[in-house]
Amino acid sequence: MANVRTAVVVGSGPNGLAAAVRLAGHGVKVTVLEAAESPGGGARTSDLTLPGLLHDVCSAVHPFGVASPYLATLPLAEHGLRWRWPEIDLVHPMADGSAGVLAGDVDRTAAGMGVDADAWRRVFGPLARSFDTLAPEVLGPLLRVPRHPIALARFGLRAGLPATVLAKAFRTPQARALFMGCAAHLFQPLNRPLSASVGVMLVAAGHRHGWPVAEGGSQAITSALVSVLRERGGEIECNAPVGSFADLPAADVTLFDTTPQAAAEILGERLGGRGRRRYRSYKFGPAAFKVDLAVREGVPWTHESARRAGTVHLGGTAGEVAAAEAAVVTGRMPERPFVLVGQQYLADSTRSVEGVHPIWAYAHVPSGYDGDATEVVLDQIEAYAPGFRGRVVAVHATGPTECERYNANYVGGDIGGGANTPLQMVGRPGFVLDPYATGVDGMFLCSASTPPGAGVHGMCGAGAAASALRSLGVDVQPIGRRAD
């Protein structure tokens, strides 16, 4: 036992847990320190409105979770995780009563697109077919030699474009808006280079794996990861905040599921001048204003397909989505912000109580927005679902300040782990050979502020764990789709 290596992971979000699980799988004795009363970070579930009504506190719908090259290597189903799919993945309703609909595979989706059917197949068909080859390349550091250069080049030809340019591949306002709503998950102006990337990945992932939810709420993902970790000998200590280097137990390697700034504060002078400047200059993006609702009999959407969709995007035309996103980045609150609505209960009935259903929604708002956007969110839903307000039984609002108070990684309400500017997308959290290494021996960053960024996919943690293992002299194989 004298030769057993040890690790400390600060933070138990999906990336911290993924890092801990990968380390433990290689025989490292892992302790996870979590400041909150329970593990999970952005993957927690709570009855925010009414007793027994299950709301996802942050992350909710998981195309990257089910498609994650690392999570796919873990026996999560054996530890209680069950993915559940809605009948329709995504609907983007329009003011005239029509809608763009993402419904399963490429052919099924294209069949409802009229004159845009062939264009949709051309843009997304090759990416969907090669998605499992592409995912390990894209969901990792971009500054490296690719293992599958052809697949990556095909992705890059689309993802490198401004979203506003790629949207012009489609002729109908419905197809354009459907894509632009997916691209808006970037939380950045959609006329910049690389702004098509997140939308391309979300659509391709949906066509290959769908947009599922976790049965019982996103907390089930956390619970499964915790169970795997404990099975591998790891431990979790809650109510254990780390504010300084003195709070860290001795270990061979330490990983931080925190913001770069928080890691810089903990490491202090050990980080060095260049490292401190790099971490402290890291930029954060716009915020989310979240509204959780208890709704009797669900939302009465005008477009029938929206009543069967796990996710609904509200933002109007492609141009209106782009204008709203440009506004929030410059600090202006749009009159009609882009709003995402989650209807997870349609795939997972365990979340509802006696005909009352949990509705999850948030609007994109400026960083640190201190107003109350509750009515704006309700108005957006009412515009596409007349009579909706009369069905609302309870409301729970969470603004940017409350988001950051709940999770210190959500700086200014940014739930994405940092601004997706072109530079930060390529060099996150800086232009270095190993984006996970802090520059301090044995210290690594594993949060969503590292590649590939936000999402419950565990790839940031898995990548950081690989760097930590290599520093211990462990031969780490590339992530595959086998049990690790």
Automatic annotation (TrEMBL):
Gene3D superfamilies associated with the record: FAD/NAD(P)-binding domain (3.50.50.60)
InterPro entries from the xrefs? FAD/NAD-bd_sf
For this protein, the record's Pfam families field holds: NAD_binding_8
Signal peptide stretch:
none
Q: Which PANTHER family match?
A: DEHYDROGENASE-RELATED, PHYTOENE DEHYDROGENASE
Q: What name does this protein carry?
A: Phytoene dehydrogenase-related protein
Say which species the protein is native to.
Answer: Rhodococcus tukisamuensis
